[in-house]
Amino acid sequence: MNVCFITNELHPFKPGGIGRLLYNFAVQNRDRPNGRCNFFFLVASTEVPDTDSLAAYFAEHDLGTVVATPKNFSFLGDYENRLFEALPSGHSGTGRVRNALEYYNGLLYLEAKYGIKLDVIEFPDFAAWGFATLSAKRAGLAFADARIVLRLHSTQGIIYDAEPFYHPMGHSERSIIELERQCVEQADTLISHLPVITQANQKYYDFDSAWSAKVVHEFPPIFLEDEEVFTVNAETGAQNFIFSSRIQPFKRPDLFIKAAAIFLDRQPDYQGRFYMVSYGWDERYINWLKGLIPQRHSKKVLFIFNAEANLRNRLLQESIVVIPSNYESLCVFAYESALRGSKLILNRRCLAFGEVDYWVEGENCLQFNGTAEDLACVYEQALAAPAPVIKPLPESLCFWHKPDLPPLVQAKAKTDSKLAVVGYGFSALAQVNERLFELSSLLDDDRFELHLILNVSYKQALALKLPKTVKLHYCAWDVPNPDSIKSLLNGLDADYLAFSPPGGQVAAEFYTLARQALDRHQDLSLISSQVRVLKEEDLRSSLWQEGNRDDYGVDGNAKISMGGAPSLVGMDMHIVSPYSCFRRSEVDLANIHEESADFFLPLLLSRIIAKKARTLVIPKLLITEYPSQKAFLNEAAVLHALAS
Amino acid sequence: MLVSQHGILFNAASDTVRAHRHPELDRVLHIFDVYWHGIRSATACLPGHKAAISHKHLPDADALAYLCAYIAKHNISQVCYQGFSENALAIAKFLRNEFGAALSQYVITHVSPAQFQNHFEMVMIREMLNGLKSGVFQKLGSVKPRFSGVVPAFWPKTLINLAPNVGALPTLRNPDTVLIPVENNWRKNLYTNALAGIHCEEITKVQVVNWPIEIANVVGVEKLEWLPFMRPPQILAQVASCAAILHASLIECQPMTQLEGLAVGTPCITARLGVHAEIDQHPLSQLCEVEFADDVGALSQTLTNICRYWRRDAAGLSAMIEDQLELRKHLSMQSYLEFLS
Questions:
Q1: Going from the N-terminus, what domains does chain A have, and what CATH number goes with each?
Q2: Which ipTM was obtained for this model?
Q3: Which residues have C-beta within 8 Å of that of residue A511, sequence separation ≥ 6?
Q4: Which of A134, A383, A389, B7 has its CA 20 to 30 A from that of B128?
Q5: In a shared domain, residues B148 and B283
Q6: Which chain A positions have a beta carbon within 8 Å of B179's beta carbon?
Q7: Are residues B93 and B140 located together in one domain of the fold?
Q8: B284 and B216 in one domain?
Q9: CATH number of the domain where residue B271 is located
Q10: CATH code at B74?
Q11: Is B34 within a domain?
């Protein structure tokens, strides 16, 4: 079985719980007497600089094959290669989709390079890295037989929920949360380490029981390597306290420091130290934390950044481990500390500690109630507490080693569905013919209908070779008013709908893929694709003649859709392309407002998304949009109406 | 992918998606210039591999190496230069050195002797002849009928252009609109065509891509409509939307405007072209060709006849066009097979 993990951290090269777990999976797999899987680790070349060393280390230790993502997007297509490459990376919805496309491209590269088909592709739930790969599978583009798995660690959304006062809920943050939610919702299988965390995710995302049926619970392999095993010196001299999680608000390093200050004011003769042995990236936050240390205690509360393993181990050996996190999905570090026999102080309000049977207060840990005051009291108790009991960990058998993988839910595909595309807004007969030509390959298929709403002045035109799948309708204007569209829709018996207004074009392939996806996946309601956008100056470029003359000679830009993102409704008029395809049953005709004029379509689509319609964004540039025509309505007013 | 960036552009979509197929001719490589639009449009319809070059920049060593690898990979043994330039000559000499007798090379000129006013054309003819003499080329041919009368060393028959291969497209057609997609110059005869369209009583709209400046001095311009710039897909859609194309120019070889019209079912009115006896005698040619290119009355009457034909028997006119397309396809394939044999 070929199993691929997607990651940007791997022990022992980069700190982090996910990287440690992946390493543990690899060791567990290597040491099995039989039934080994072929493990691949796809790492982002943009984020992991020294992939060669990583690959060499993993190969030397027979842990699996480390593959760096290619530096281009060439496995996705010509335009995709150039336009996705030009997308901004970083902390935004678009940046996250870029990462997701990089991994999707990397997986295609990996399969081609090694001549294999992957059976399992596992993403962490964080950062929506699986967005493009999941979309590609659901669109029928790739990975038809692969199981795409998300492991519940901690999404950005869950983290934001656990640190509510640190993040502005702007377009970027909402986009990231929505992208992650769609990945967690639509993965084939979800792996959770703790049932309480499954429930927390289900509650946070408001998922139904069909989602929880896809979740598999298993305890991961957690162990200490030889150099990590040492006897904790609990009895010798002064005991220290150590915080060695990542410096991030929901890990609550502030509680560690605040409680230290309270404790030290009460125990001025205490000879031990409070060590922050950690790493982080937010300088402002770190400086704020440093500012919490009263000057009088500055020699007893110490920051040590990016410590070497030996130093960190020595400090752990001499210290009481404090994990004050608001939220953890498991916390490998806590279990490692317990295995080592460290005294351990945990936040009882954290579900992974307070609601998990393994942790027994007074037996293998101490717990506090989530406040600095209480933590300071528990510091005192910890100094006097006896050595903890070392409990064995739950048995770990990962799903790829089980004889039978949990079955994938596969609904029977429809085959007799009908897709109707409604074209309107033509200001010249040539534009009508352009649409007919673009879609001519679909017009012989009885499952496709093209409805063209034309100015009544074209009624005299000769219809030549028009198949019965093309239906002509007439109205008084080039652009019909929303009421006439409403009455047209009333009479349609199609299963799926799409509109084809002026200002863009759609590859016939899009409609084929969209219909197949809606046929196969009954949970999906709306299909879009990523969009190529050409500005007015792009359309006028003289470079058209130097290349493909059917095109413009310039690439334009990619406009990235966040898919089904209800929290963006009212912030963004273009959550999905107006050329998207959706189930007829999603259209509430009441939402086609007579006064919405040219905005009726974005209004309609936004309201479908606001109802939490599951959306698939095909990770290709199958839709091209040109500058939209000026509408007389005020866009801000329309957005306001959407939000209300 | 632009020719200015890559030196040679292989099989661009616009050079291949409307091409015909033929088991033998699919193995020919056509080399042509990206900027010479008529020649490029004609080449785009031919079966075979397509390599677009530029007369402005010679491909660099990497591009030429790729060209050699491409020829070797696809077992190409015949190369046709459609139109000719100094850069085309340099590439031909390079390929002769690289492949020797394993590669046969041909030049097809798309020029009329009336265009020799542009002296460049005669310089190129001289280079073609030199190449023929030195063995760089095996044969010289032309799409201009009777060109061997101009230069006897050219193949005595005519290579027949193909129309774009777009299949039977569904179309909505205005039977009262005519399109004149020509430049405003003496050769293309814009004013004659515009006057013929304006005078035709069956016509309510005369679409032009270049405005016949000052024509209002002699006739009302209410019927005239100017169309902005279009790319090939838009051109085909525009051409398909009208009753006919008016394209009676003074000098032609085998105008692609006519063939693009036929491909989407639109007849094109021209002066007599004399491309091939069988085409000359075809009913569509009889319907659409006029004796004199500057005979406004005859052009207008021909346009009237076509408009009435559309209203009377649209299916019959469509079938007539399809029949000529089939004939042209047959003649074209035959001419290329014979020329390359």
A1: 2-217 (3.40.50.2000), 226-384 (3.40.50.2000), 419-643 (3.90.550.10)
A2: 0.94
A3: A419, A421, A439, A442, A448, A498, A581
A4: B7
A5: no
A6: none
A7: yes
A8: yes
A9: 3.40.50.2000
A10: 3.40.50
A11: yes
For CA atoms A291, A296, A299, A302, the dihedral sign is negative
- Contact residues, chain A, for B175 at CB < 8 Å: 460-462
The tally of domains found in chain B comes to 2
Helices A131-138, A171-186: crossing angle, 10 deg rounding: 50
Domain final residue, candidates B125, B159, B193: B159
Residues B225 and B275 in one domain: yes
Given a contact cutoff of 8 angstroms between Cβ atoms, the answer to whether B298 and B290 are in contact is yes
Kindly state whether B240 is in contact with chain A, defined as any CB-CB distance less than 8 angstroms. Answer: yes
Closest CA to A162 of A251, A289, A286: A251
CA distance A461 to chain B (A): 5
Verify whether the Cβ–Cβ distance A465 to B170 is below 8 Å.
yes
Residues of chain B in contact with residue A549, where contact means CB-CB under 8 angstroms, are: 12, 14-15, 40, 231-232
- Give the closest-approach CA distance of A547 to chain B in angstroms: 5
Q: What's the per-residue H, E or C state across A387-436?
A: CCCCCCCCCCCCHHHCCCCCCCCCCCCCCCCCEEEEECCCCCHHHHHHHH
Rounded Cα–Cα distance for residues B56 and B35 (Å):
9
Residues of chain A contacting residue B238, judged by C-beta atoms under 8 Å apart: 430, 433
Q: Are residues B29 and B141 in the same domain?
A: yes
Q: Residues 6 or more apart from B220 whose CB is under 8 A from it?
A: B198
Q: CA B241 to CA A435: how far, in whole Å?
A: 12
Is any Cβ of chain A less than 8 angstroms from the Cβ of B322?
no
Low-confidence ranges of chain B (pLDDT < 50): none
Query: Residue A595 has what pLDDT?
Result: 77
| Inside any domain, residue B165 | no
Q: Tell which of B129, B159, B189 closes a domain.
A: B159
Q: Please indicate, yes or no, whether residues B150 and B185 belong to a single structural domain of this protein.
A: no
Q: Across the interface, do A465 and B168 touch by the CB < 8 Å criterion?
A: yes
Restricting to B residues 158-197, those with a Cβ less than 8 Å away from any Cβ of A are 166-177
Torsion angle, alpha carbons of B276, B278, B282, B286, to 10: 50
Do B104 and B210 fall into the same domain?
no
Could you tell me the residue range of the domain that residue B296 belongs to? 174-329
Using the beta-carbon criterion (under 8 Å), do B318 and A466 form an inter-chain contact? no
Residue B338 lies in a domain: no
List, for residues A441-481, the tens digit of each pLDDT value: 999 999 999 999 999 999 999 999 999 999 999 999 888 88
3-state secondary structure B88-133: HHHHHHHHHHHHHHHCEEEEEECCCHHHHHCCHHHHHHHHHHHHHH
Residue with the two structure tokens 């409509």: B225
Residue of B171, B204, B209, B307 to mutate for A, most A C-beta atoms under 10 A: B171
**B341 in a structural domain:** no
Segment (H or E) for B174: strand B171-180
pLDDT tens profile A203-220: 999 999 999 999 999 999
Say how many CB pairs under 8 Å bridge A and B.
Answer: 121
Q: Can you list the positions of beta strands (E) in A417-554?
A: 419-423, 448-455, 462-464, 470-475, 496-500, 504-506, 526-533
Q: What are the CA-CA distances from residue A491 to residues A168, A196, A486, A488, B145 (Å)?
A: 46, 49, 9, 5, 57
Report which secondary-structure segment, H or E, holds A274: strand A274-278
Separation of alpha carbons A85 and A74, rounded Å: 10
pLDDT of amino acid A232: 66
Same domain, B194 and B287: yes
Contact criterion met (CB below 8 Å) for A535 and A504: no
pLDDT of residue A236: 54
Per-residue confidence (pLDDT) for residue A631, from 0 to 100: 62
